Amino acid sequence: MNPDLTEASDAALVVAIARYRQEALAEAYRRHAGAVFGLARRLLRSQSTAEEIVQEVFLRLWHQPDRFDASRGSLRSYLLAHTHGRSVDVMRSDSARRAREERDVRAAAESGYDLEHEVWDMATAAQVRQAMNVLPQGERAAIQLAYFDGLTYREVAVELGEPEGTVKSRIRSGLKRLRVTLAAVGVVAGAER
Amino acid sequence: MMPAEAIEELLGAYALDAVDANEKRAVEEYLANNPRARAEVEQHREVATMLAYSGTTAPDGLWDRIASALDEPAPMPGPELARILPPPDRVDVAMRSSRRRWLRPAAGVLAAAAVITIAVLSATLVERARELDRFRQSVAAPTLSQLYGSALRLNTTKLVALRSGDGAMVATAAFEPDGTGYLSANRLPQLDEAKTYQLWGAVDAGEGAGAKVISLGVLGRHPDIVPFVVGQGKLVALVITEERNGGVPVSTQPAALKGDVI
Fold this sequence. Notes:
Chain A is mostly helical.
């Protein structure tokens, strides 16, 4: 790997990707593929479909790097937002519902994923879990069902037996509260680069 | 058309892809002319990003499939490993070059060949010297790397993410219940020769004694993986400061990075 790229910021990587430097895409993959794959697999509960999503996300970055705007957030946030959106699309299709029922959660194989990022993610995940645990139960449940089960807020309302208006308010207030809690312990999204 | 207040209430759900298609369109039209609402959605997405942190690894072979779908072959991603064998490409390039030159007219051929041969030998020798350095490093360095890696794989190991106030500097630490820990700080910028990083632990001594701060080691000006040992007490936080070369017994410097033990 080009040492210039291993030290480069995510924004610089995307500029290099726009210049068709494939090693820059490889570096972006090294940094973020684990998180992208982890989210897709958690949502889809299918190893093979999650791999397809990862491919799609990184190929989109390759072909449309201009879609990423560093001033609007981190590269990881951008990639994960796309991953979540595509995974939810797939989940809401009939074929994916069948796939979900299969609950195909196979162990992940080894990859070139950066150990440092893995450790960082695990440590951050612990802090996020702790922050989630201090949210009011209603907010926590609404966010979990919407984000990790791919439900619309209306479906969440049915699931929790709460009014729709209450659920959408809780999702919003819960996200705001999470941000404040995480900021208080120094966790800032995308701050690792 | 949805009223603005109703759309505002949807921003959280929208950021989590938890709205239906009609609502999504309405929110996106609203966002197009409302930078404050766009900023709120971006903030929600940043939080959602953190929810997704899991330390998962992508499967082997997945990158190959992505790379093969690109226009040209791409290099394998992954940490740079010390190579034991000389990379053939440099020598091959020189040799291919030399073959081409043999095809030129006779004048100067022998001289050119001699130059090329010397160039190839020089390149090979330089490369071998570099490989030897890399090999030495690969023998010396992985000992700590392996210990660090082993610590990470234990269920009982606690992980600490250390950050600077602005988030620009990061380091990670792993420590085991017996008090043995490893700090990975290879992303810290190199300090000038008069300075060193120093690691501190905030330790709760228990029985009402409160927390005390102890030095866990002088890290040097450009640390990589550094072991440390926490003695008696419960480690509650790690702090890194910048100190004068050699370190200090008691710091008066502000924390360059800090992280709580969860």
